[in-house]
Description:
Blueprint: E1 2-7, H1 11-22, E2 27-33, H2 36-45, E3 50-53, H3 62-69, E4 77-82, H4 87-95, E5 100-103, H5 108-119, H6 130-133, H7 139-148, H8 159-169, H9 174-181, H10 185-199, H11 204-213
Helix pairs in contact: 2-3, 8-11, 9-10
Amino acid sequence: xxxxxxxxxxxxxxxxxxxxxxxxxxxxxxxxxxxxxxxxxxxxxxxxxxxxxxxxxxxxxxxxxxxxxxxxxxxxxxxxxxxxxxxxxxxxxxxxxxxxxxxxxxxxxxxxxxxxxxxxxxxxxxxxxxxxxxxxxxxxxxxxxxxxxxxxxxxxxxxxxxxxxxxxxxxxxxxxxxxxxxxxxxxxxxxxxxxxxxxxxxxxxxxxxxxxxxxxx
Length: 217
């Protein structure tokens, strides 16, 4: 039996999900929560195998809640359901432990199939058909593919990180990158420093090698 927790601040969506999932013979809704704080507290008392997590909630956001929940027994799988396409938020969610991110308009049958696949641990984003990918922000496919090329990857890269990394690999200077991306040179320097930290490198030559190892350039 798949025990599911639902964290969603909109009552209509929360209750609708609970009703739909409870109809499945192999699924049980263990709890529902309207805030991240409630989700953490309920998970401590009523463990679930999988959690459907909203990103933007009052009191505590979904990413913070996932960071607190991810190591709780039985170390649940987590799926983000969101209306937001902000890449930084989605990457934060994946770094916090989300196995998948879907838009809230995903049809119930696709979500149910995804839940079963993720609980079985055979969810392979690169092999997913277009039906699912219509409801799954593309950033997760790009960043997971990039991360898969490095066993030492601690953080996934944003699309901006990858753009800057590729420009570094082509030999562009910070000034040239700033002009191309219409950013200040100081902003580019900050992006480059953050990129180096994510890659675990110290300078451009090591960044180029990391990009080659990850098949990003």
